């Protein structure tokens, strides 16, 4: 998808503002002789930006406005390397709330809803973004934050929450607890807005079935405002994103070249009106595709497909490159296998070979040993590797109140 004339104008303004500053990108663009953007060709010459840039310019090297204009900072939830600090102006905060309110509206949520917010608050962008959008919409915010499941369920029942906002991991945990405690007839939930981590179709169906609600994928990342820059609709065919605030292109992660609409690749985002920390051509490492054409729901905003993984999620075993999503596709082929799994990459000291261990959950009605054999055969035929599968009862693998870590590489420990 190429830039529209209006988007080109906004990118040109962003560059002209940046080169007047001593910010990291202001200096970089001046050094490269980038002084504007009048065409798609000009835009394509702009170098990609990355999380490494943001870590290098820690703490506030990417700030593009005076201190007096910064009203808030947020930091990414990543656990490796220097943290990433993103400054926000009042307009940035307001724009983010407007986008988030659009997300709620796209999901059919109104000011009569009661929205229970379980993602974390603080430096992470999640909780406060869900709340700001809720308040902009005029709905009732129930700002629970993560954890304390007993309290979550009490508030859900007593306040008759109609919408739950959560990571997919915590939504699964809550849905299982509601089932275990026999509370399903006491809850009033109608919709779930789920984000922060990629989740499988099997996991989605489990949550949907357990809670009896409609689920919506919400998209975003701290570097680009936070969650709320896109969401799925009732058609469940991709996520609409707000192209008056951001421009999305899809590139081949290996070559960096833009791919045609409809083809899969890495999402690259340009902020069109962000003030505190504008980012041009930011590589997200999220994998998706632009869905051509208009959505049957009637919304005119463009769509990307749900996130299928991350380009940096790949792991290598026996010379084969694999993604967690490929393991999930195998699990989805076997009856009775649940959505939860854990991958451990280990080294056999006796044979000096790498070993792929995968623990999965299964319903009690199936034969665990036979299921393990079936999964191994499928993995060998579909992926070219033969993992060691351990099948355990539903509920055995640990649940997370935030994001679930599914891959652990012990080969270098």
TrEMBL record:
The keyword Ligase applies. GO terms for molecular function: ligase activity. Residues 319-411 form the AMP-dependent ligase C-terminal domain. This is Phenylacetate--CoA ligase. Residues 62-270 form the AMP-dependent synthetase/ligase domain. CDD domains: PaaK. The lineage of its organism: Bacteria, Pseudomonadati, Pseudomonadota, Gammaproteobacteria, Aeromonadales. It comes from Succinivibrio faecicola. It comes from the Bacteria.
């Amino acid at each position: 998808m190429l830039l529209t004339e209006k988007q080109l104008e906004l990118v040109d303004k962003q560059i002209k503002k940046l080169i007047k500053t001593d910010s990291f990108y202001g200096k970089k663009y001046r050094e490269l002789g980038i002084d504007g953007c009048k065409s798609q060709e000009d835009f394509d010459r702009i170098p990609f930006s990355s999380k490494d840039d943001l870590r290098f310019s820690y703490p506030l090297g990417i700030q593009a406005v005076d201190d007096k204009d910064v009203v808030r900072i947020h930091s990414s939830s990543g656990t490796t390397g220097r943290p990433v600090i993103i400054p926000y102006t009042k307009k940035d905060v307001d724009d983010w709330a407007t986008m988030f309110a659009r997300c709620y509206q796209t999901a059919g949520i109104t000011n009569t809803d009661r929205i229970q917010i379980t993602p974390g608050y603080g430096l992470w962008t999640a909780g406060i973004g869900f709340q700001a959008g809720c308040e902009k919409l005029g709905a009732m915010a129930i700002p629970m934050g993560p954890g304390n499941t007993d309290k979550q369920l009490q508030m859900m029942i007593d306040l008759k929450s109609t919408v739950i906002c959560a990571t997919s991991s915590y939504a699964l945990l809550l849905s299982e607890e509601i089932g275990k405690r026999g509370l399903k007839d006491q809850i009033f939930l109608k919709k779930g807005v789920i984000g922060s981590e990629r989740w499988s179709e099997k996991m989605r169906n489990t949550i949907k079935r357990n809670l009896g609600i409609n689920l919506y994928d919400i998209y975003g990342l701290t570097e680009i405002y936070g969650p709320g820059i896109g969401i799925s609709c009732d058609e469940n065919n991709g996520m609409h994103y707000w192209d008056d605030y951001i421009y999305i292109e899809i590139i081949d992660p290996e070559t960096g070249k833009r791919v045609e609409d409809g083809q899969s690749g890495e999402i690259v985002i340009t902020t069109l009106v962000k003030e505190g920390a504008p980012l041009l051509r930011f590589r997200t490492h999220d994998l998706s595709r632009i869905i051509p054409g208009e959505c049957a729901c009637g919304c005119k905003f463009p769509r990307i497909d749900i996130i299928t993984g991350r380009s940096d999620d790949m792991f290598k075993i026996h010379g084969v490159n694999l993604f967690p999503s490929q393991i999930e596709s195998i699990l989805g082929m076997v009856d009775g296998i649940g959505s939860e799994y854990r991958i451990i990459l280990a080294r056999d000291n006796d044979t000096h070979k790498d070993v792929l261990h995968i623990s999965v959950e299964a319903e009690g009605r199936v034969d665990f040993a036979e299921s393990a054999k079936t999964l191994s055969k499928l993995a060998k035929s579909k992926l070219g590797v033969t993992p060691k599968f351990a099948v355990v009862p539903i509920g055995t693998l640990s649940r997370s109140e935030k994001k679930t870590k599914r891959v652990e590489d012990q080969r270098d420990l």
